Amino acid sequence: MNARARKRLFTNGEEASFILVVLIPTMLAFLVIRLEPIGETFFGSFFNWSLVDGLGRFVGLKNYAALFGDKVFYAAFLNTMSFTVFTTFFSVALGLLFAYLTNRGIPLYSLYETIIFIPVVLTFVPVCLIWLWLFDWDNGLINMSLKALGLHRISWLSTPDMSMVSVIIVSVWKVIGYNMIIFSVGLKNIPRSYYEAADMDGAGAWTVFRKITLPQLSPITLFVMVMSVINNLKVFTQVYVMTHGKQGGGAQVDVLVSDIYTRSFVYYRMGSASAESILLLVVVLVMTVLQFRVAREEE
Amino acid sequence: MRARRGPAGRGFFGVAAAEAVLGVSALVIFFPFFWMVLTSLKSLPEIMRVPVTFFPQKVFLDNYRKLLGDPLFLRFFLNSIVVSVVGTVVSTFNSMIAGFVFAKFRFPAKRFLFFLILATLMIPFQCYMIPLYLLCVRLKWIDTYAGLIFPIVISSFGIFFIRQNMQSIPDSLLEAARIDGAGIWRIFFTIVVPLSVSACIVLAIFQFMTAWGDFIWPLVATNSQRMFVLELGLARFRGQFQDDYGLMMTGATLGILPVIAVFLVFRRYIIEGMTLSGIKA
Fold first, then answer.
1. Which of A2 and A96 is assigned the larger pLDDT?
2. Fewest C-beta in 10 Å: which of A143, A255, A269, B45?
3. Confidence of residue B141 (pLDDT cuts 50, 70, 90)
């Protein structure tokens, strides 16, 4: 490294004052609105406290132990996991399918790409309103169509299980375009010569896909899946808007973040909510580390 | 002429079949927006009619009049704009200068400080919002713009992204300007910023979209409707107008159409910004 030998660009005084002027406010901000709150959450997870009394009694690991015996937490955890598994699977599979198809050199591919990408740029709340209307029991377009076809209507939002299915449908619809674009980049980077060689050998389409496309894409696939899993573990808005706070029943679905929200901002059980936050953090970090491992192996 | 890009012509589907599958999928994916706009143009009795009418029999604009004439609804828009614009400007500017410092200077504890910033990159916001909320309460920032904006004035991703970008600026350019007697700020604004303008735009768009779509922090940090951002205001539609889907779809249309318009104009930057970040909220 000859970085050390590099000539200094600036006189020491001017350089130092610039660095200080930039970094002091920046690092202070990181300290106050990132590092300290993260530390406080960790610390707070060992205390029994509420909004009013501030940090109360030290309870060690009791908050964590209580969570593991808590039915609501258990349900929220399982819901988060099944949401993550299904949403990841369908959005990755469909994203790959659409990327594959738009890369076949068909006319209008860029129009299709643009349309499929639109839901990605939208925010969740208006999107949820649209789907609530499509899923409506009496007048929703989906049930009307089912009835017109002589099929049974589906109660999309009145049992917890179906609510989960509905939330997954909306979430998959919203994110397919994102996965598609990433896969598209990956597909374009596969050397054409591989395909030409396979063509000469007379390999069938399925064989080419399985033996060339999929293995060549595998780093991208892993990246998309891990990203997807991390994002899905943090699911909140669509679950909250579509299944919470509806007057007159409905089927509320709890996920980890909504449970954290309820514990802290509805019941003010800050210790318990902090413990759950730390558990979520651990799960997300494990996935992140996994991704770095994978990325490093690729290099 | 087949297969201008990507895998050669051979595939599971002929080109026609690929076209058909994509065409139908794109229609299905797009249809909810179409239905949203159609519903927003119908009167409530027509919406509730069985069997359903497809196009509005009579174009009904009362919902639009009602929402666009409602000061509270306009206020939601204003709040969203203030929060997103201020948050984006501050965090993008901060990322630019801090990214510059980490890319082009040597100083003590540089690696450690950069590590601290990166370490927070992977930590979900939801995991530390409770102390942030308590801080907000102590500062009496609940229901204020300050309270809505302060968590987004810095961005670890932004600093990281800009630093990566600025590392490719040759030192010789900066040295040349230095020899001409320019100060550091001047070099930053006249040389460094113009050279990283596209990274800056990509980052700004990403920050803006993240701020615009943020839901959980405004939900926590505001109580009074006057301070709701658009996302919160729209979410309350569900309880407020229970079954008035016409009004709900009008609100959704007003919230969505500007975003689609902006997307179509800045398509390239937006796709780039969203894909290379990989950390959508």
1. A96
2. B45
3. very high
**Domain residue limits at B44:** 15-60
Number of domains in chain B: 2
On whether both B111 and B73 belong to a single domain, the answer is yes
CA distance B178 to chain A (A): 7
**Domain co-membership, B117 together with B234:** yes
Q: Are residues A23 and A108 in the same domain?
A: no
pLDDT at res. B35: 93
Q: pTM of the full predicted structure?
A: 0.90
Say if residue A235 is in the same domain as residue A154.
yes
Q: Which domain holds residue A17?
A: 12-44
Burial of B236 (0-12, 13-18, 19+ CB in 10 A): middle
What ipTM was reported for this prediction?
Answer: 0.88
Interface mutation vs chain A, best among B29, B157, B274, most A CBs within 10 Å: B29
Once rounded to an integer, what is the mean pLDDT over residues A136-155?
87
For residue B242, the chain A residues in CB contact (below 8 A) are 247
A129–B132 CB contact, under 8 Å: no
Tell me which residue has tokens 């939330």: A167
Average pLDDT of the segment spanning B137-144:
94
Q: How large is the angle between the packed helices B230-240 and A124-134, nearest 10 degrees?
A: 20
Cβ–Cβ below 8 Å for B22 and A270: no
Pair A130, A30 in one domain: no
Chain B: closest CA distance from residue A71 (Å): 21
Query: What integer pLDDT is reported at residue B262 of this predicted model?
Result: 84
Please check the confidence at residue B96 and state whether its pLDDT lies above 90: yes
